[in-house]
Specification:
This protein has one domain: Glucose-6-phosphate isomerase like protein, domain 1 (Rossmann fold), CATH 3.40.50. It is 56% helix and 11% strand. The chain is built from seven helices and five strands. It has a five-stranded parallel sheet with strand order 2-1-3-4-5, with helices on both faces. The radius of gyration is 16 Å and the shape is globular. The N and C termini lie far apart (41 Å).
Length: 195
C-alpha cells in the first residue's frame, strides 16, 4: 500500500470531521444535555446498532459504566447488542428486526434515552427500536449519516438527530466515534465540572 493512499485517508477523515464540526456541534450539545438530565433523574441510556455501530454502542456503554477520562461513579448504560442469548432467541423466535425493540420494551422506562446508531439510517431493527422507545416515552438520540434515511421520518420533535455529512460508511463511523467521545466528555463535564 502506498504512503500517499494512507495519507489520503487521514486527509479525507479530517475534512469530514471539520465539516461536521459546523453542523453537529449544536445537536451533540443538545444530546449531552438530554443524556445528563436523564442520568441525573435516575434514568439510563440504552444503545443499539449493527456491526460497527454495535461496537460503537458497546464502546459508549463501557465509557459510561467504567469511566471516560476521569474517575467518577459508574453511570447506567446498556448496549443492546451484547447478549448473544437474548439476540439469537429473539431473532430465532420472532425476527432479526425485533432484536433491539423487544429489549427496549422489556428494559426501557419513561425518561430513559435510546442511543440509536445506524450509518445509513435504514436499519430495520434500529427503526423498530426507535418506534418502541417512543411507545415507552423515551427520548431518542440518533447517530446516522447518508442523509439520515428513514430515521428522519421515525424521529419525533423531542428527539435529537446527529447526521454526519458524508455518504462513506468509514467516514461516518469515524465521526460517530468522535461524537461518542464528545457525549461522554460532555456528561462528565456536567457531572464533575470542566477540567
Amino acid at each position: 500500500m502506498s504512503v500517499e493512499r494512507i495519507q489520503q485517508h487521514f486527509r479525507d477523515s479530517a475534512a469530514v470531521k471539520l465539516e461536521a464540526l459546523e453542523t453537529l456541534s449544536m445537536p451533540i450539545a443538545a444530546a449531552v444535555d438530554t443524556m445528563f438530565t436523564a442520568l441525573a433523574n435516575g434514568n439510563r441510556i440504552l444503545a443499539c446498532g449493527n456491526g460497527g455501530s454495535a461496537a460503537d454502542a458497546q464502546h459508549f456503554a463501557a465509557e459510561l459504566i467504567g469511566r471516560f477520562e476521569r474517575e467518577r461513579p459508574g453511570l447506567p448504560a446498556i448496549a443492546l447488542s451484547t447478549d448473544s442469548s437474548v439476540i439469537t432467541a429473539i431473532a430465532n423466535d420472532y425476527s432479526f428486526d425485533q432484536i433491539f425493540s423487544k429489549q427496549v420494551r422489556a428494559l426501557g422506562q419513561p425518561g430513559d434515552v435510546l442511543l440509536a446508531i445506524t450509518t445509513s439510517g435504514e436499519s430495520a431493527n434500529v427503526l423498530a427500536a426507535i418506534d418502541d422507545a417512543h411507545e415507552r416515552e423515551m427520548i431518542v438520540v440518533a447517530l446516522t449519516g447518508k442523509g439520515g434515511g428513514r430515521v428522519n421520518e421515525a424521529l419525533s420533535d423531542t428527539d435529537i438527530h446527529i447526521c454526519v455529512p458524508s455518504d462513506r460508511t468509514v467516514r461516518i463511523q469515524e465521526v460517530h466515534l468522535l461524537t461518542i467521545h464528545c457525549l461522554c466528555d460532555g456528561i462528565d463535564a456536567m457531572l464533575l465540572g470542566d477540567d
